[in-house]
Specification:
CATH architecture of the largest domain: 3-Layer(aba) Sandwich
Bound molecules: uridine-5'-diphosphate-glucuronic acid
Shape: elongated
CATH class of the largest domain: Alpha Beta
Oligomer: single chain
Structural class: alpha/beta
Largest sheet: 6 strands, parallel
Distance between the termini: 66 Å
CATH topology of the largest domain: Rossmann fold
Length: about 450
């Protein structure tokens, strides 16, 4: 089949490369000339493990190409995917659909023959109706079926998620579109990935409900972690104890400094707005958003408490800046609030991240110093804070760390170490949700 993907950002590029790898003929289109020029030269605009190889292989095989010109690929396509960004609209948190609607207007006059227009961008319920209205009013002769086909790709594991999905969701009403979408996903369907056909509106809501539920699950365990600290329990064991119940499930129960990234913060906010406007407020998600926002800043206070209540003029080393490992993405990363909170309290911050430092320089306070590796970062530091669980921080040489630091505080906001292994080496260890550890600086301990 022939596929045109409009928008060669994260979702468009990964989806395009994977569809090409299935044997389809794919053209990825983007307005940004520098992005297309880079892709044509074999350079990836984002960091995603395995993507560069996948793109190279499929370009060489003649199945994947890149262009800034939408007309040709759209006129030849069996399916046109809309995969442009839907950022939070400034001021009100609603999803900004201007790019989606602009693409609908542009493709309207170029579609030829029966064409499926599939929205992969995360869009609020009802957007498909508007896309269909735009295309039909611009080109009444167009033979199109507008479908919803949300993505469930995690950054850093996107290729794996695309090729081995838990499910594929497609919202449509036209039986011809059902045949086309079944054909597009046939290789996955043969691998027994459930292909769930539903209505367009239901499909649009499934995407938001999935992200909101995951954000809620993370926020739940984060609050349980705080409770564990105050009542002498251990959050990792609580997570294991509840996660073994198949109705709850073990995944997404890792306590951390709060969720970030380009999806959960924006999508939870957009869903809250949709629900309020639809007179069915989702109070659980409203609370999730508020709790998560406060948590990021609270993590700075946790570090300050671990340092004895004061960090003025102290040097703090921050390991990991991206919102999670295996990405260079800094959007809504907890590190932004944590670093700012430390600087506001008078600390000098040195940071290291394997991929995120270029983006971090544009977002973090200019006072932050950047190191070339983890050990350079911690040299002379009074305290070290692990904010993102990159693999290379999981096996740090703790003896070396203890030698080159000037202080002895290690704050692990991802629970990747055990207290005993750190303390044996002479460092004082603070993590999340371990109430068996000494409570810092006189916080009240609940009665036994
Ligand atoms: C998320 C969803 O997982 C994808 O299914 C979805 O397709 C994507 O959003 C999207 O809408 O495009 P992503 O934002 O890449 O993917 O990242 P996640 O792996 O879900 O992590 C999100 C945040 O939650 C990170 O900050 C991570 O550190 C945090 N997290 C995750 C935790 O704090 N604890 C956990 O147990 C899991």
């Amino acid at each position: 089949m022939r596929i045109a993907i409009i928008g060669s950002g994260y979702v468009g590029l990964v989806s395009g490369a994977c569809f090409a790898d299935f044997g389809h003929v794919v053209t990825c289109v983007d307005k940004a000339e520098h992005k297309i020029a880079a892709l044509l030269a074999g350079r990836m605009p984002i960091y995603e493990p395995g993507l560069a190889d996948l793109v190279e292989r499929n370009v060489e095989a003649g199945r994947l190409s890149f262009t800034t010109d939408l007309a040709g690929p759209v006129s030849e396509a069996d399916v046109v995917f809309i995969a442009v960004g839907t950022p939070s609209r400034r001021g009100d948190g609603h999803a900004d659909l201007s790019h989606v609607y602009a693409v609908a207007r542009e493709i309207a006059s170029h579609v030829q023959g029966f064409t499926v227009v599939a929205t992969k961008s995360t869009v609020p319920v009802g957007t498909g109706d508007e896309v269909e209205y735009i295309i039909r009013s611009q080109n009444p002769a167009a033979d199109v079926a507008v479908v919803s086909n949300p993505e469930f790709l995690r950054e850093g594991a996107a290729i794996e998620d695309f090729k081995r999905p838990d499910r594929i969701v497609v919202g449509l009403s036209d039986p011809r579109a059902r045949d086309v979408m079944t054909g597009i996903y046939r290789p996955l369907y043969l691998n027994e990935a459930p292909l769930l056909f539903t209505t367009r509106r239901t499909s649009e809501l499934i995407k938001y409900a999935a992200n909101a539920f995951l954000a809620l699950k993370i926020t739940f365990i984060n609050e349980v972690a705080d409770l564990c600290e105050n009542v002498g329990a251990n959050v990792q064991e609580v997570a294991r104890g509840i996660g073994l119940d198949k109705r709850i499930g073990a995944k997404f129960l890792n306590a951390g400094p709060g969720y970030g990234g380009s999806c959960f913060p924006k999508d939870t906010l957009a869903l809250v707005k949709t629900a309020q406007d639809s007179n069915a407020p989702l109070r659980l998600i409203e609370t999730t958003v508020a709790v998560n926002d406060q948590r990021k800043r609270a993590m700075a206070r946790k570090v300050i408490a671990a340092c004895g209540g004061r960090v003025r003029s102290k040097m703090i080393a921050v390991l990991g800046l991206t919102f999670k490992p295996n990405t260079d993405d800094m959007r809504e990363a907890p590190s932004i609030s944590i670093v700012q909170g430390l600087i506001d309290a008078g600390a000098h911050v040195t940071a290291y991240d394997p991929q995120g430092m270029e983006q971090a320089r544009q977002l973090l306070d200019p006072a932050v110093r950047y190191a070339a590796d983890p050990y350079e970062c911690v040299e002379g530091a009074q305290a070290v804070v692990i904010v993102t669980e990159w693999d290379q921080f999981r096996a740090l040489d703790i003896d070396r760390l203890a030698r080159i630091m000037s202080g002895d505080v290690l704050v692990d906001l991802r629970n990747i170490y055990r207290a005993d292994e750190i303390e044996q080496r002479g460092l004082r260890y603070t993590n999340l949700g371990d109430g068996s550890m000494p409570v810092p600086h006189g916080l009240p301990v609940a009665a036994e």
